[in-house]
Amino acid sequence: MRRFGIIGLLWLGLPLSASAVDEKGLDLEPPVVMPKPAPVGELFRYHFATGSNVLPFSMTEKLALGGYVGSDITQEVESHLKGNNRAGLYQQFSLVIYPLRSRFDGGALRSSSVPQSSVSPKKVALNAISVRSVQSVGAKFSDDAYRLVFRGNGYYRGQTLDVGNNQFQVLGYNALDFRFDAEVKFQVSLLQATSFSRLQTGNMSLFTSALGDSLAFNGRFYSQGVNGNPWLQKGMGLAVGFDKMLKIKGLGTFKQAGRTHYLYLGVKDFGFIHMPKVAVQSRGYVWDASMQGLSVAGESSTKMVGLKQAVVNAKELQLSNWFGNQRDSAISRLQIQEQTRSGTVLTPFALYADLTNFKVKGQFFSMNVTYLNVPGYRVSGRLSWEKTWMPEGEQKWTYLSLSPYLAMGGFDTYDLGCAVNFETPIQHLGKTFFRVDFRGLEAWVMPNKQHGAGLSAAMIFKL
Amino acid sequence: MKTFIKFIYLIACVVLFFACKREPLSWDNRVVAPLFKTKLGLGQIDAKFLQKTPSDSSYKLTYENLVYSYRMANVRAYDTGLTASFNLRKLKLNNQTIVQKITLGQINPIFKLLNGQTADIPEQNQGNLSPVDIDASAFFETATLDSGYLDISITNNLPVKVKLVVFELTNAGVNSQVAYDSFTNIPMNGKVTKRIDLRNKTVTKQLKGSIKRLTTEASNGPVLIDADKGVDVELTVSQLRPRYAIAAFPTQNVIEQNEGLTVYMGGAEVKYFKVKAGKLKINLVSTIQEDMTMYFEIPSAKKNGVVLSSIVKLPAAPAGGSSKRFEDFDLTDYIIDFRGKNPDVKDTVNTFHQILIVRLDSSGRKVAIGLKDSIRLEYRMESLVPDYAIGYMGQSLTQTGDQKTPFDLFKGLNGDFKFKDFKVSLVVKNGIGADGRVKVNSLKGENVFTKNSVALNATPLANDIFITSPPFVRDAYTVSEVVLDAGNSNIKAFIENLPQMLDYNLDMEVNPNGNVSLYKDFVFDNSKVDIVLKVEASANFSVGEFVLRDTQAIDLNSLGDVSRIKSAKMEVNVSNTFPIGAKLQMSLLDAEMHMLTQLDIDPSDQVIEPAVLDAAGYPSQPGETFFTMGLGKDKIEALKKAKFIAITTTFLGSGQMQKIYDVSTISVSTVVDFEYEVKMGK
After folding, report:
1. Under an 8 A CB cutoff, do B554 and A62 touch?
2. Which one of A213, A315, A424 would you mutate to disrupt binding with B, by most B Cβ within 10 Å of its Cβ?
3. How far apart are CA B368 and CA B600, in angstroms?
4. Would you say residue B569 has pLDDT above 80?
5. Which of A68, A67, A62, A104 is nearest to A87 (CA)?
6. What is the ipTM for the molecules in this complex?
7. Cα separation, A307 vs A141, whole angstroms
């Protein structure tokens, strides 16, 4: 139910807000299919995308939604590891809080053909204010890191697990967005961190003897986090975003007809979050003595730490403190350095380019390229085919389009998806646009076999 | 408006959806880690229990189990001291004398005119002469007297005989009468004294002396008239005991003692006593506004040849207040002679010689002292604990009645166990410096597993066991041993019942024949009589199958959060060079000792293999065993509630007699393998 509960608009597939709208209105050249009626303002949108090149959707969806992953699944994944493994999650929910009320206060309804913004390009006007919550998780890990974390050394006696170099990050924040109209539509966001964890390893290994009577560990690692801090002390930041629409004439078969293509370029959430108190535990890394900055300053040598059976006599055996002493002794030999630092992290910003209204052999296509600044995310490219229907006669709906697509990259390897756009007039709201996008249909159908899936939903109307 | 409300409702649902708490991401992780290794051998057991037999490196077991222990409870010095309180009635003032002259000129002013002339002096009869001031400040400022005397002496320096002098002495100012008396027929140059009782009288420093009547004879012819001569009034105060006085008190001893002080010793008659711990407490409280000095000495108490003595100073009390001094003297290591003040004259017991003097140190100042003023002295010996005491400890009979005591040799053991040869003795160890006797009325051994009791029937125990005094050396003791064997008792059946509890009833008497040592009994602070059941056996026994049970407390808190453990097992490698094997059974118990579950041992019938023995029964190769014991997923809940673990070891022998050699050990090494649930995020 959770997966299928929301109807909306895919954020990553479309530019920022009302600026995506063709300000001039409809294309008047028949029988050209009218370009998508540009949404003029969103009420809310929800976006969820997760993926991996090795982990099945049944595992990665639990990164966002929580839950238990059974040993049968973790065992099955081990046979499909690829050496350089990736996984990630991006989840966002936004809700407009201004000027929502204007729709219901008896103010004049605006025609959808009238550009929502009649601001002179030379002036800057506040378009909308919204609140947003973002969660991002990204991981790059080795095969043996997977084995150690998801299986445990109990399955690898007599072997060395070369955990190697790995990276894992969780970053979540709330945002208060101010959207402005100007020559270029832009957005300024105030950010407040809700969660941050980062783990990195270097040249890590764990040997377990065949009898299990000795362990040997070496390697570097550090972990950082703010989860122990009070809510308001986790971090604050600032981000900006903008998007611009460019008209390009004559690509493909449109060239001779002088058709117009639309190229949307944009940046979303480009900024930073400053965290004043980050708890850091590390081994084998050198840090700046000023206690500022979350990046390592260098590496130090590390020694192998062994753990063998504690030699106890009969009397000590009855006491339980030998166990604690053994554990404490092993931990102290690891020489883990603990400190509190302050620093700044980049937000998981997105860069995108969206080319629409591209006709080949009589069919309309669009292309999208997106990059998301989350570990494990590769540049994603998508090719969509668009089929549009307009109502015949008087209907309660005014527009319906279907956009199946093929996507490559992202957190995943490939995805098949389909977006559905639907527009209908609603009393007091005017023309209201709904969009839902199922990304990774193959993973929704076969969650234990396929990797990566996503869900987006939005509802847009004139604010 | 309706549409707006619908939208708000929709938004609220959406927000609530995202506000819902999600369960954390979790998965199972399996961990293998080394645990512990240990080696157990009989050499680790205290040598007083197990001694090696040099001839063949086997062991001999010697086990002593305390049945009953007796200490002398009656030798202690009860707190003793004296309390004295002294008030004004015990103080005294100095005897003092003042002289006041009453001249001829004062008697009759006419004689002043005739001063130096020779003339006849006619008979005189004068009355109510002017009073003369008498300064008695040398006595005191003022004093109200409980008792005392004023001697008034009249000396006649007149050239005529005084036939009558009526003399009155009053306090100036208040005009109260102190004395009134007549003196008759005082010859020339003669002196007459009258004693006045000053009981209940108040005397001030300013007095007035008045001659109420003076009658003289006529002179025999002309005499030289010297107006400056007359009668001398001499006032002497003595034996003054003031009820209240403002006076300069002379230096005087207010307390003076030199005597023996008897201490109650709970029935013992002690001649000498060395103190292990104890104090002499002196509390001195005074309201008298003069310094005090207390000197005490206990000639009976010596430490390194030095007698206990000290001087304690107490400063003068402030007006209306009190002066206090509290002193503690540590009596540790003092040897106190309790034979009395002068043992050469009278040699007694429980009595020590003490000297105590409290002296008022006069400053010469006049200070006020009344009946409410006092000097209170508390002088006590407290908490005296003897290091040792010498004397006669008295005669005492202790009857235990029916009592129980554990017998730990077979604690937790039950089954078929036979020693090849063994020796059992009832041993009485006497560390008290007095003769005594022990009578064992009954002794039973109880096996708590089979509920079987075997009463010990032994001919030697039908009579008293007499014990003698050890030498006067700390921790020395005499041993009286009664050997029990098959010829004089049923000790074999008693021991092979494998008792865990002993039921006994015995009598213990000190000095059954009275003071035969003539006060040469002694007792140290740790002296006691121990009655012990002693078992000696060579480590050569036959074992069929016998069970050792043990319950140990376990604290799993040191392991961390056990609630996420899904299954756990311990892999055990055993290398055994003992000649017997064993089977293990372990159960987890809750805080009330109720069984929660049994640990799964795999293989379930696994036996810890015994060593391979050569023809002589000597271990030549260890028996190697591997097994696991743990809790599967269905039983792991029990781990969270477990507070105790019950271990049942069933030893499996061949039934043949076997010796244990010093090379026999059992080595155990363990590894833990457990599965737990990892949780990430909240």
Report:
1. no
2. A213
3. 94
4. yes
5. A62
6. 0.76
7. 25
